[in-house]
Amino acid sequence: LGNAGNASVPVTQDRKVTGIITDERGEPIIGANVVVKGTSKGTVTDLNGEYSIEANGKSILLISYIGYLSEEVAVGNNKTLNIQLKKYRGWLSNEAPASRVTRTLR
């Protein structure tokens, strides 16, 4: 009989990974960027904070949204990854926001 009933996907084979990106209150984040690190594969979340992207088990997803701290999440064996982003609290902390405006002071 062997592994005929085993539907496992090899770790290096791309598969659809889905999920919801929310804020600290559990509200969906519309337009968050979801990118497979080291590739040009990317998408943005829809009106419900949902995304779908092709990635493999060795992939790392980079999730970012302006005003929030970016997250890096390993895909592993997961087909669903729901991620909660934390609000950026200010320039005086050691946190780095997803996007920052730089100015030259003269």
Mean pLDDT: 85
Pick out the low-confidence regions. Answer: 1-6, 100-106
Described by the principal axes of the CA atoms, the overall outline is: globular
The helix/strand series, from N terminus to C terminus, equals EEEEEEE
Instruction: Determine the strand fraction and express it as a percent band.
Output: 25-35%
Largest sheet: 4 strands, antiparallel
| Helix run count | 0
Q: How helical, in percent, are the residues? A: under 10%
Distance between the termini: 75 Å
Q: Within the largest sheet, what's the order of strands?
A: 3-2-5-6
Determine Rg (CA atoms, Å): 17 Å
Total strands: the figure is 7
The chain-level structural class is: mainly beta
Keywords:
single chain; 106 residues; mainly beta; 4-stranded antiparallel β-sheet; 3-stranded mixed β-sheet; 7 strands; globular; disordered N terminus; disordered C terminus
Present the secondary structure layout.
Blueprint: E1 15-22, E2 33-36, E3 42-44, E4 50-55, E5 60-64, E6 71-74, E7 83-84
Parallel strand pairs: 1-7
Antiparallel strand pairs: 1-4, 2-3, 2-5, 5-6
